[in-house]
Amino acid sequence: MLNARNLDDQTYEQIVKTAEGRLPWLCPSWTDHNAHDPGITILELMAWYKEMQQYHMNQFTDELRCKLLKLVGIHRRPATPARCALELGEDCPACLEGTPLVTREGIRFELAEALPAQRPVIAQVQMAQEDRLVNVGEQLRDRRITFQPFGGEGEPPSSLRIGFSQLGEGDLRLWFDVATPAGAPRNPFADRDQTPRIISWQCEGAEGTQLVQDDTHALSVSGYVTLRPQGTWPAGADGLYWLVLTLEDPGCEESVRLSGLSAKRWPALQRETWAKSHLFRAESQADWTVCLSDAQAVEGELAVFVRTADRWTQTGKWLAVATTEGRLLQVDTTAAVQDGADNLLVVSLNPVHSGRLLFDAKGLPGETFFLDLGGRTALTDSFVLLCDTLDRDGQIRPALWRCVEDFYACGPRDRVFTYDPVRETITFGDGEHGALPCRGEGTILVADLTLTYGAGGNIPAGTDNLSFVDSGAKVPNRAAVGGGNRESVAQAQARLLQMLSTTRKCVSAADYEWLAKETPGLRVAAAKALPAYDPDEPAGVSRMPTVTVVVVPAGMGERPLPDRRFLEAVQRQLDGVRPIGTRVKVVPPVYVDLFVQVTLRGGENGTEAALAAGLRTYLEEAGIGATLQVGDVAALVQSIPGVLQVRDVDLRSPNPGCYQNSEGDIRLPRLAIPRLKELRLERLPAEWTSR
Q1: Strand residues in 414-510 grouped as ranges (E)
Q2: Which residues contact 517 (CB under 8 A, 6 or more apart)?
Q3: Which helix (H) or strand (E) holds 291?
Q4: pLDDT score at 1
Q5: Contact indicator for 346, 278 with CB cutoff of 8 Å
Q6: Is the pLDDT of residue 144 over 90?
Q7: Identical topology for domains 121-263 and 509-587
Q8: Is 177 helix (H, G, I), strand (E, B) or coil?
Q9: HSE-up of 653 (CA within 13 Å, CB side)?
Q10: Where in the chain are the domains?
Q11: 312-322 confidence digits (pLDDT tens)
């Protein structure tokens, strides 16, 4: 570690004294060192300046910390908007994407998707098990009750049938509330297609059913499922359109438990759009027409730009009219270049805030503009400016500028700017790092700007928290989550320290075990690394560097075993982090039966049940390939209330590979996990004594 030097180690008086002490050697003819001498006055001025420089050079600023963090690949995370789900009934009218809602405190939300006029209505939900149908609609309405749609362990397999009295426009989208299982938590999924089980989705009577999107990963987590029936989807004899869910491969992990199902749930984001740009590839027509299908564009102020052969040019040859489907725009695009790229740009500005979105530039280096966002934060991933820009041929043309974190890696022609969420300002470069906008009136236009309150948008669930701005109708909502402020420098430093304290490479046996448990999308209950062991060799000794990893899924029952997909996922995870030249083998565990006989004096009626529960806990904590010691079991028996004396403990395991020494301890095979098969308890009379 490098020791930080203290650069501010001199006071003003020390600097003056040191300088005056060198005067006889530097200038022997200078003999008057009193305060009235002009030379001493200049020396004192330089001492004051040196002290100020030392102070500033000794400061470890946040700007310097950010630059050092970037050297190791740590960038401060931007602000993120909160997301919630709205329960919109059949009486709710159609809404466009971006329709605003507001909380009682004035926090704005927007619909993330358009709400069509005709939406699906769930009439019945049934479980089909063998020859009987069970209606589970009431259970789904009570969020506190969960059920297993595909049957539990030891039960006949079942399917879930969802009947719709009405279908909606376009694809069918449903929300599933999946109960979180107990035990090991599920790791985040690596990709959208990863699933721990296989579920068949079939629109009954249709030619086929396409699974468009599955955010639940085969009902592993709560989320949306979007389906698209192929061909015609006819109604059944009861007049309902039936969707059938069948479990084709249950996998090796938990059984699916549902606590809710809805076709009325629609997503909303805590954001407020002030400016939004739309790019199109328009044909050369005098009346080319397009519909801007979002709520912000319906009443927004529009600025239309056509790209000609060499530049973007603002045009006034357009007409717009508001409709129920959005803003219908008709533009004369005869001057637009036809090169296959975007040639029409439409910027929609919020009419309330449009006066703050146009700036006059002086063309100076480092020019800064105040946005006045009222305490909100701009989402930098969608922050874009349209600025008059000096091109390489000397012509000034409008161009889109993007937001960057800083100008460190920017060149003199890079069209970029920075955003300071604390001061609510945007800053341009100095001509060497970042280009300069051209001087003039109205040369800078905000083309894309979306604001958020960050963590302030995480509102609780309720029936009167949110209401539509236009109608004032209240909308029930689930809790809004995911909103976050911009990461502070201290938080980024803590993330770096956490990253340095964890490894993504396998060096020790503990690394193999930890990274196996971190396999994306899996619930890994236990992992045991066995260096220099090869289960495929007769003696178990590997002829080449081999690490065998035993993995146990967080599955059902007392003896869960991983399936092929589970083992392959862990194998891919470890193959990406193992050292070159080392072979990794991922194998399932082997369960061995354990018979325990205990002789004791005393005890109560519940002693046997307490002892069985304690033994199961002891065997789970012993882990894979452990040694079971008689003394540990005896101590466990003695700790049970009512036991006066432990006379004898006998452990037996008939499984091959188990070794028992003269003291009765059992050493399990390296891949083995013990499970209690039988417990025999013999209680001697309390008055019995040995002779």
Answers
A1: 416-420, 425-428, 440-452, 462-468, 474-477
A2: 184, 524, 527
A3: strand 288-292
A4: 47
A5: yes
A6: no
A7: no
A8: strand
A9: 25
A10: 12-59, 121-263, 272-454, 509-587, 590-684
A11: 889 999 999 99
624 CB-contact burial (10 Å; exposed 0-12 / middle 13-18 / buried 19+): buried
Instruction: Give the span between the Cα atoms of 138 and 222, in whole angstroms.
Output: 19
**3-state per-residue secondary structure call for 324-382:** CCEEEEEECCCCCCCCCCCCEEEEEECCCCHHHCEEEECCCCCCEEECCCCCCEECHHH
Q: What tokens does 432 get?
A: 């060497």
Q: Which two structure tokens, joined as six digits, stand for 569?
A: 């996922």
* Cα three-residue angle 463-469-472, rounded to 5 degrees: 55
* Complete edge-to-edge strand list for the sheet that includes strand 241-249: 132-135, 121-129, 158-166, 241-249, 198-203
The Cα–Cα gap between 483 and 480 comes to: 8
Please check whether residue 198 is in contact with residue 210, taking contact to mean a CB–CB distance below 8 angstroms.
no
Distances (CA, A) of 166 to 64, 116, 121, 514: 60, 13, 5, 49
Total residues found in the chain within this entry = 691
Determine what percent of the chain is predicted with pLDDT higher than 70: 98
Cα gap 348→279, rounded to integer Å = 11
Token pair, residue 53, equals 């420089």
- Pairing status of strand 344-349 against strand 272-280: antiparallel
Q: DSSP for 530-549? A: EETB-TTSTTSB-SS-EEEE
Q: Residue 201 is inside which H or E element, if any?
A: strand 198-203
pTM of the complete model: 0.82
- 91 by Cβ neighbours in 10 Å (0-12 / 13-18 / 19+) ranks as exposed
Nearest to 673 by CA among 622, 605, 602, 624: 624
- Contacts of range 530-536, beta carbons closer than 8 Å, 24 or more positions apart: 530/625, 530/670, 530/671, 533/670, 534/585, 535/585, 535/587, 535/671, 536/585
- Residue range 490-509, pLDDT digits in tens: 999 999 998 888 878 898 99
Q: How many CA atoms lie within 13 A of 185 on its CB side?
A: 4
Q: What is the DSSP letter of 14?
A: H
User: Nearest CA to 227 among 209, 244, 242?
Assistant: 209
What DSSP assignment string belongs to 566-603?
HHHHHHHHHHTTSPTT-EEEEE--EEEEEEEEEEEEE-
In sign, the C-alpha dihedral spanning 39, 45, 46, 51 is positive
Q: Does domain 121-263 have CATH number 2.40.50?
A: no
> Tokens 């006034």, residue?
316
Question: Which helix (H) or strand (E) segment is 636 a member of?
Answer: helix 630-638
Token pair, residue 257, equals 């438990």
| Topology (CATH level 3) of domain 509-587 | Alpha-Beta Plaits (3.30.70)
Rounded-to-integer distance, Cα 108 and Cα 101, Å? 6
pLDDT digits (tens, 9 = 90+) for 599-628: 988 877 888 899 999 999 999 888 899 899
